[in-house]
Amino acid sequence: MTTTATTTTTNRVTRDFDKPLWRRVLLTRESAIVGLLIVVVAFSMMTVRGFAQPITLNYLLLDIAPILLIALPMALVMITGEIDLSVGSMVGLASVVTGGAVHIGLPIEVAMLLALAVGVVGGAFNGFLVTVVGLPSLAVTIGTLALFRGLAVGILGTTAVTDFPETWTALAKAKIAGTTIPYIMVPFLILLVVFVLMLHFTPFGRGIFAIGQSKDAARFSGVNVERTKFILFVLAGVISAFAGIYYTLRFGSARGDNATGLELQVIAAVVLGGVSVFGGRGQLYGVVAAVLLIGVLSSSLRLANITSDVIMVITGVLLILSVVGASALNWLQSRRRRINPLQVAATTA
Q1: Whose CA, among 46, 168, 257, 338, lies 20 to 30 Å from 138?
Q2: Cα–Cα distance between 71 and 79 in angstroms, integer?
Q3: Residue 6 pLDDT exceeds 80
Q4: ∠41-45-47 over CA atoms, to 5°?
Q5: Residue 329: enclosing H or E segment and its boundaries?
């Protein structure tokens, strides 16, 4: 008679497909964020004066549009286990490039193309240092955060460029005819569809999840890890530049300190939306719901005359609770999956 003791290891997985579909859909962090968003919206409409006005929705979407845009590539970057802290500074740099080009007499269309090109170059620089040189993305993007912001401030100094064509500034704030939804939601929805299809319905997207779970296993499975990460950093750079163009036109001002701290809001929304800080899991609908949740909370609290400092504290507490709650849930699940060696021995004796 032999006794065999077997142990199992718990790995991070995207979903446990042995569970019923309703559990996989409803009992997730993403669904919890969607439910919380619905509750907060309903509560705000009933208790906060002015929240239910159409103009509130308009300004809410205008305010969170840059975060919505940048959160899409940021989610994919973080699913691979990397991070990009330079996105806020890239928004500021793209704003300065747009304003500076217009200021010296270039057409605004050319200025916007230059800003997008800067986004591509900045993202490629991050990607090169991470994938070719082999530096950690946290260290690299902390450095480029300072670099891009320094370039932005150095180009314009304390000067603010405000002489933009009224047609473009009006378009950045315009609403879709017959609605209170701003036009900026159109490119966001197009990008959302593209990113959802890319992440969830293509081999490239499956490779992103595989890299986050184990880059060595992904590499042996045929995934080009370095190329995938490089592409994602470039996407983060160019979409941040696009957000910078929108930011500039919406406020009609190009300054070196535009969008300072925006990267923290983006990362907070991505993590709150269910993307693991360790990589390997995440759903874009949860990220979008988290951005909307943070925006709704901020809007309703401002209407209730709550100061911005208190709003930041509430958002931070919500983020911490979501991370702690996810860790606690993972620990409980790992305890449930763990096999008792004595039970295994009894069954194999």
Answers
A1: 257
A2: 12
A3: no
A4: 115
A5: helix 308-337
The one-letter amino acid at 323 = V
- Contact assessment for residue 218 and residue 210, using Cβ atoms and an 8 Å cutoff: yes
CA torsion angle for 308, 309, 314, 317 (degrees, to 10)? 140
* E-only strand ranges, the chain: none
Residue whose C-alpha is closest to residue 260's, from 114, 158, 105, 146: 146
Question: Which token pair is 255?
Answer: 């300054």
| Domain carrying residue 35 | 21-39+50-348
Cα separation, 262 vs 66, whole angstroms: 9
pTM for this predicted structure: 0.86
CB of 311 closer than 8 Å to CB of 52: no
In a domain, 5, yes or no: no
Assigned domain for 78 exists = yes
Tokens of 256: 């070196």
Using one digit for the tens of pLDDT, what is the confidence trace for 150-161? Answer: 999 988 877 888
Between CA 80 and CA 230 the distance in angstroms is 11
As a whole number, the mean pLDDT across the chain is 85
Residue 69 burial (CB count, 10 A) = 26
- The pLDDT-based confidence of 102 (bands split at 50, 70, 90) is very high
Residue 186: which CATH number? 1.10.3470
